[in-house]
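Researcher: For the record, we're logging two predictions in this thread. I'll number them. Prediction 1 follows.
Model: Prediction 1, sequence and structure:
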Amino acid sequence: MEYPPVYADGIKITKVKNLTGPDITGKFGLDWVDLGCVTRCPDGRSLYVFGDSFSGKNWGDNWRSPTALWSKTRVLERGVTFSGAVGGVPAAQLIPYEHGEEISTIIPSDVITIGDTIYLHAVVNQGFGNVIWSGIWTSTDNGATWQDSGARFPGDAYDKMWNLCTWELGDDGWVYVYTAEFLRESPMILHRVRPQDLTNPDAWEPWGRDGDTWRWGAGPDTVVDDIIGEMSLRKLGKRWVFTWFDGPHYRIDAMVLDHPTQDLRQTERVTLLHGSGWGNQDTNHVAQLYGSYVIPGSTLDDLHLTVSQWNTGDNSIYHVMQYRFQGLDRRL
């Protein structure tokens, strides 16, 4: 069912469309996918990277993760469409491994393009939720092929808060990285790193308390008290937007920042989408929602996100949707 746009907290909220599903992306061998973190490729296309992906009549068949689709869409309000799949048809798993006892699945957390290289950060599970390490893979051909950079972030580092990441390059030449526990059970911490050192975990500088002040090289200390799930940090114009899934409150929230180092505990946040039951959905109340990744081409006044939804009761719905939020710049 489609619902009309609504206004909430001064923001116009629209569900643009379903981006994936058997009748939409099944032609790429991706009937059932989630997440959809996204970056602009060097060649101008956008690359959408998905988590656990399946094809065929039954949810769970032909398991791959991560997978990816390209899009040439630039007019976001018309709805994103996909032009091709990485690896052809059916879409291939980006990272070569077998889903088994050694590695059960590798889940993407974010992608970023710097120069001619795309960097993919992903979380390696040995049994879902048992993170043994996270790593970074790179592509210099717009996502067509991937190489393991060798970067390893131990699963238990910083009380497991080095598992899941989102990152963005600032005008000052630093990449700022928020990270949290994979299982939505922790706040988050902040690091910065130079682009040329992105795949060297030892070069990541933590942000933390030094007495009554904060500085680089201290900590890392948690920068929020909230429990952080899937997240997306992007610089839009002169400001930054941070969106995340708030599991305990069952919603997707956003903050607009002047800089990632500002006091997030004192920063206003707004709820973009509320969770709901399956029988109580409307435009901004979505059953079993999660994810939330900024789509390239967004502005603070016209923000587009990929949002996931999974009916865990019968697996009848497991897809990615596109939502539009207008007026966030005037609200925050």
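Researcher: Logged. Prediction 2.
Model: Prediction 2, sequence and structure:
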Amino acid sequence: MTISAQESVLHAISELLIEKFEVPADEVRADAPMRELLTDSLMVVEMAIAVHETLGVKVEEEELRATTLAGFAEAVGARCTDR
């Protein structure tokens, strides 16, 4: 079984949330709003930088606040495949 690019992006972002931002693993769900996972503006900025460093995709801070984890991963994944 192969993992889709979308699943690997979701996994990478989930790992960042758990490892770098110390979000409890049980809170990192596809339907979780990013604004609840990244609880302050510094975390949002740091996540934007971490996604760029890890996946090579630039994201806007507003994107991180406006969607769920799955929605954000989908948007990032679409940009990864565009390159």
